[in-house]
Every structure is written in structure tokens, then in C-alpha cells.
Amino acid sequence: MKNFKNILLGLSFLITFISNGQILPVHLTTEMAENPLAVVENQPKLSWQLISKESDASQIAYIILVASSEEKLNNDDGDIWNTGRVNTDKNLHIVYNGKPLKSETKYFWKVKVWNQEGKISKWSKTATFRTASLESDLNPTWIGAITKADSHLPEGRNYHTATFNREKKNSFINASDSLARRSIMLRKPFEVEKAVKEAVVYISGLGHYELTINGKKVGNSQFAPLWTDYDKTVNYNVYELSAKEFQKGDNVIGVLLGNGMYNTLAERYTKFFVSFGPPTLFFKMKIKYNDGSEEIIKSDRTWKYSKSPITYNSIFGGEDYNANLEQKDWNRKGFKDRDWKKVVVQEAPKGVLRPQTAPPVIIQKQYEVKTVKELKPNFYVFDMGQNLSGFPTIKVKGKKGQSIRVWVAEGLNEEGTIAQGRSGKPYYYDYTLKGDGTEEWTPKFSFYGYQYVQIENINYKEDKNKDLPTLVDLKSNFIYNSAGEAGSFVCSNEIFNKTHELINNSIKSNFQSVFTDCPQREKLGWLEEIQLNGPGLMFNYNLQTFLPATMQNISDSQRENGLIPTIVPEYVIFGGDFTDSPEWGVTGVILPWMYYEYYGDASLLEKYFPVMKNYVDYLGTKATNHIVSHGLGDWYDYGTHPAGYSKNSPIALSATSHYYYGAYLVAKASKLLGKTEDFEKYNMLASEIKTAFNKEFFNEETKQYGTNSQFSNAVPIFMDIVEPQYKEAVMQNLLADIKEKGDRLTTGDVGNRYLFQTLARNGENETMYKMHNHYDAPGYGFQIKFGLTTLTEQWDPRKGNSWNHFMLGQIEEWFYQSLAGIMSDPEKHGFKHFFIQPEVVGDMTFAKADYQSVYGKIASFWEKKDGKFILTVQIPVNTTATVKLPVAKNSEIKMDGKRFRAGFDEKAQKPVLELGSGIYTIECTI
């Protein structure tokens, strides 16, 4: 109840500032982001949400002003764009159509609207956007400690697209002390003699960087810039700096560089070897002074570098730090850098320099030690209480030159020591003390998935052994993307609540530069997880600016023949089905559609239509009579067999169904985009694939598909491949198999979503409830009983490798759409109109969820109490909802305390209410 009350209180606080009958635009965004610093589009899309005291409120018109300065905007002078009154209810994705926008320029805008009664609002608060720099304007010079030619790093893509090769390992220059591998510090002094108005920084430090101005870190990112295929795209970051960041006279720019995915190391654990070149920096800062003049400071030969105290850093192997190599105040004025060396100008990365528009990865939470065990004298294992992606922070004291090695892992061996065997070993952090009181250290360029920390040869808290260093404090830092959370869910069933927590802890752990499979042994962007968990991801997180970057990565990775590989960015080629599996590659077709459905924005469909089309065409080249037979199939399907390739269901059935689904969505996109010829082609193709699929896999006598497995029967129902006259029979066969298996699933990574949603969308939510309301394997409850805090790779954690995968998390879609009942309308994308149609199943007594849609907060809270069904809903301004009540036709219905005559949906056999915006409480007799 507390969360829902907070929702209502928050809304009440906002609307207290609105006069009766008024409406107010809030939460202004440009290209789906608040006050973005690098808008690429020449005609960016402007959006806003609306709030009102009144129910059933909507917009009938708007006026937008865009100005070149805040002063002009405050004087209502839209010198860049004044739309005048535009009569429309549209408040999302308004395409800018004013004067041509200049690069590297900041603009200011505001909006006011008219409500359904013709009353005009106050002006919104001022929003801003800054246009990105053209690459020609950036004119980047890349600098570092060593050129690529002198680094002796392997040339060409064969290096980083080769699988692990032990023989090659020893032929590479891998010494961490090598300038080709070593973390370096770069510095540039500069003078400021006039009053600064503002400054803008454009920076890309590869693999990752930390930027400081006068010793103060700029931004809060932990791994900037985000990962890409650096041969195709190189991200740069943009920062706005205020006058207070500078001091009159001497100032210093400091940059620390690490390897990241740009330049992996061969020592310790690594999943693969990849190098695009030695660590490198591009930097540009434009300073604007109050007198109107400008100054530009860029990366060039005048910068100097020195080796940093980080003596080893690998995204896969860990990080080492020698505090005795610190150079105090190296990034501040007054430091003597006479022993530093001049940088060299390096070969530029091959990729196109693009602004990073996706949110950064940051430290989100910190955990204290939960329990500690001393396995033997001075040998400690710490349980941090949460499996997560991140790194520790240690506070230590001891003698100069003493060192502490910090091991981390997801699990423990029988004797209680940490176990890295399943997750990639050896991985550790080494810290060498300088012997100066209590020292604190946090790694910067490496992370791992772990819950347990093991440290040997130390004192803990107390200085018992004077010959050993003392660990004063230990914390665990949870890092994940800062996109922000969009929703919440809770209900009366504790298994479901804990399942929601398990899944979301795993999503967060893998919500990095890309959605990874696991945060330890691979850290790779396996694509199927995004589309199969897509609705759950979008209900829980704000992906408006993250998914466009994902599609850019997919586009970059697409081969000339149209193949979209299973992992993106494709740092390593595994070959065969592990590179080419339709269930993975079709993400490039499905994701733009999901984006349109949830955010009402067709831009990804427009931009990446060629990617979608080319992938379907590629599958066509692999088909025989429209049947595609390669791939991984229903990966990790459940049974007595070892997990891996699909065993319960035909791989060809899985591959061909996704070929059909891709063709169907390309036809749908063609129609939306007005591409008539493409629509006719792909609509016909989809029809032909459907016919071939049914001919190949459907048995008219048994009314079953493939091997009669749950996946075999669920996927054609979900994708509407099964002919209507056979649908009910196939559905009954599916239900019979579930019952025969004791209400347990046999699907895998791919099939779970199709099984879950086939049941949910065909009135079988009680079956879903039985399938998941238990503590056995396969099931989420078994993992809860096992005491885990994240979702694992297999239903039985003892059989799998990673204990931090979200690939089995497809039940999130059911929590939001079925239990809470928040369902989008496929005809009104972006939740312009939606359904609230909760399912009351099993012995559940309440469920509640909220979702921050692009129009505003949607909330649904139902409970069974004293023989009544009570539903409270929140509907954003400028939207409408159809509420379908899970009660009998003759139930007495009251809304906000007054009797209400509802309509009735004959197909659903439920009373129906059509509602505009507002908060409503509906009470029904059961």
C-alpha cells in the first residue's frame, strides 16, 4: 500500500500548483531525453507529459517556442521556432520544424497547451537541448603513450574475431607493464584569465577513461564511453561545465585511461582476446567567456603522460593498484611534470565518432558486510548479502609495500572458500599499500559478478598480527546502467514477489553498456534475451534512449549478407549456430517494433528498416522450401538431458517460426511506413512460410506440432501460425502436456515466453499460477529456496554455470500484464489507449503495479476484501483506458462510492468501463 500511496501523494503535490480546470505540461524531453547534450537529428522530436486536477482531461492544442537564449525564451521570443497554436491532441514526438539548427549549440524551449474545455495552461518550465558536434567540427586528434604500429598488437579483425586460442596467447605482447596495455595518466595545463560563462567538453577515452578538471571528477560514469564495435562506432561523451569548475590562472585537465573491451589482456582469466589498439584519448573543450570570446583546448602533442598506479587492468581479469606509484596532485596546478613524457599522436579508431546518447553506467548501491567467517587464522570470507555486478571498496592500513589480494565469486566451495570455477578464473584485485595511515581504494576499470569476497593474510578490524595489513572496512559496489526504473510490482504471493526481485537483480547486474548474459565469465550481448524479455525490461526500466544505441550496435554488427550475429557487439566469433541462430538474430526485427509499441516512436522502424529487411532476406537464403533448419533452437529446454541445444523440440520448427515472425513484422513495418512494394513482397512471404510451416510440422490427426512438446505447440499459437479451426485442439493438447508433467514446463530460454504468453492470452492464467506457485525445479521457487539473490542460468543452480542470468525471467511480462492487468492497445501505440484487465488467480488477495509510460504514470491496484473486489487505477492525462473487471455480469459496481452501470464485453465475459484520465476506485461485489 505504501508505494501506491506515494504515487498518489506525488501526483497531488504536482497538481496543487494548477488552478481548477487547468492543465500543465511537465517532463519535457527532446529525442526522449531530458535536456540532452548531444542531439544528432536535424529535426529532433519534442515531447511532454500533462497533469491536471480534473479527471477526463486532455489536450486539444499546443504552442511551442524554441529560442537561442534563455533570455529570449523568458520574453516569449521564439526566435528559432514559434509554432503558433497547433490544434491537435498530440503531445509526443512533435517534429521540430523551425530554423536550421547549428551544431554544438544550445537551444531553449517551452510549451503551453489548451485543455478539452479550451482553457490555456501556464508555460511549462524551460527545457534545453544541445546539438551534437559534426565529426568535421571535432577534427579529432587521438593521443596516447604508444602508436599502434609500435605496440605490436595484432593487426586486423581476425584477432578480435578469433575464438580463444592458447597458442596465440603466448605470441602476443601481454605484459601489463607494456605501454600497449598499461593504464596511463594524461595531463594538460591551461590558463583562464577571463570570466568563464560556460564550457563544453567532448571526450572519448578508449577503452575507458576518468576525466578530472582541477582534480575534480567530471560526470559520474564508471565505464565511459559505452562499449561498441570500435571498427564501426566510437562513442564520445559530452559534458557541460559551469564557471565554478575553473579558477583564474592555472588549471589542469587530467585523464586516466584503462583498457576495457577496447584492449583486453591475456593474463589471468579472459573469455577472448580482442584489441583495437593501445589506450587512446580524444579531447576537445570549448570555453565561452562572458565577453563573448571563445577558446578551444584539444588533444594534441602538447599533452604529457605517465604510467598510472594501476599496474594491471582487464575487464575480464581484474585490477591491480600500487599506491607507492601515486603522484600526488598530478591533475592539479602546481604539479611538476618534468619527468612526464610527451604523448604521441596515434592512429584514429576506424569507427565513426558518434555521441553517446544512452545513459552511463554508475554505482547505484553499496552493500556492507553481511556475515564474515575466519576459515583459518587470518583467512576471511565475507558474505556481502547480494550477488551483483561490481567491485569492492576496501579500507586498509599497514606497512609500506604490504599487499592485499581480494578474490570475489558468486558461490563457495564445500570448505567455504570462494568458487570461481563456473564463472571464470583467476579473477582478483591486488592492492599494494603505501603505509600512510588508513588507505581507501576502489577499482576503476574492471567488474565481476560476485557475492562473496575472500582475503587471506590479513587482520580484520583489529591489529592482532603486526606483520600483516589490517582490513578496516569492506563494501560492495553494485553498478548498472542509470537509465532509471519505470515500474514496480508487488502482490500477495511471496514466491512471485521474490521472483520479481531475483529477476530484477539479474537484469540490473547485466544492464551495462549492453544487456549482457552474465557479469563474470562472458559479459557478452547475447541478443535473444532482449526480445524474449523485452516487455518485462520495458515495464521495469526506462529504455527510451538505451534501445536506439542497441539498434546501432545491431546495425554495426550486421554482415554484408544480412546475417545478424547472436552477440552484439561481435567481439568474438564462436562460429556455426553460436554465431547464426534465427531466434537471436531476429531481435534486429522485433526490437524496433517493441520500441514503437511501448513508446509510440516509429523512428527505429524508419531508420533500421533496411536492417530488418536484410535479415529476413538472409534467412531466405538459408531456407529450403521456406523451412530454415539451423540454430540453437529452444536453448536450455528443460528435461533430464544436459542443457544446451534444443532437445525437446525440433530446431527447424523454432528457426522457421522465427523466420515467419520476422517476415510478418517486416510486412507490418512496410505497411506502416507506406512501402507498398515491400508490404506485398513480405506479406506474401509470411503467408508462404506459414503454409510451409504447417505442412512440415503440423499433424492433422493428432492436432499437434513437431514433437508434441510444449514449445512445439505454444509457438504456433502465439505467432498465429496455427489455422483457426485447429487452434483450440492444439491448445488443449498443450494443456494436457502441462498437466501430464505435473503442471511443470519443459520449455527453455526461447520457449518460455511463448508458453507463458500463450497461456496468459488464452484464458489459462490459473495454469500459469500452478506452474509457478511452488518450490520445485523447474521453477523460480526452487532458486528462492536455494537462497539465491539473482536468477541463475539453469532452473537447478547446481547444474548451471552462471548464477546471474536473466534469460529465464520472462514471467515479468505476466506480472505486469496479467496479474496487475496493465496491457497496451496494439492499435494505439505508446499507451495512448490501454487496458486494465487484472486476473485474479489462485488464492491471491492483491496485486499492484505502476508503470511510467511516455504519457505519465499508469497504476493498477486490486484487492479482495470482505467479499468485494476493489480496484484503484491511475490513468495519465491525454490518455484513455478500458477497464475489464474480473467479476460476474450481475455484480454490483460502484466507482468512487457511487453506483455505476458498466458495459459488458461478451467475448471476455467481463463488465467493462471506459475511462479518461484520473484516479478511480472501483468496488464490485464478488
From TrEMBL:
Start and end residues of each Alpha-L-rhamnosidase C-terminal domain: 826-897
Catalysed transformations (reactions): Hydrolysis of terminal non-reducing alpha-L-rhamnose residues in alpha-L-rhamnosides
Keyword Hydrolase included in the entry's annotation: yes
A Pfam family reported for this protein in Swiss-Prot or TrEMBL: Bac_rhamnosid
Organism per entry: Flavobacterium soyae
UniProt protein name: alpha-L-rhamnosidase
Transmembrane regions listed in the UniProt entry: none
EC number: 3.2.1.40
Boundaries of every Alpha-L-rhamnosidase six-hairpin glycosidase domain copy: 485-818
Alphabetized Gene3D superfamilies for the sequence: 1.50.10.10, Galactose-binding domain-like, Immunoglobulins, Maltose phosphorylase, domain 3
Residues of the Alpha-L-rhamnosidase concanavalin-like domain: 374-464
InterPro entries for the chain: 6-hairpin_glycosidase_sf, 6hp_glycosidase-like_sf, Alpha_rhamnosid, Bac_rhamnosid6H, Bac_rhamnosid_C, Bac_rhamnosid_N, Ig-like_fold, Rhamnosid_concanavalin
Highest taxon, organism lineage: Bacteria
Keyword field: Hydrolase
GO molecular function: hydrolase activity
Domain Bacterial alpha-L-rhamnosidase N-terminal: residue ranges: 194-364
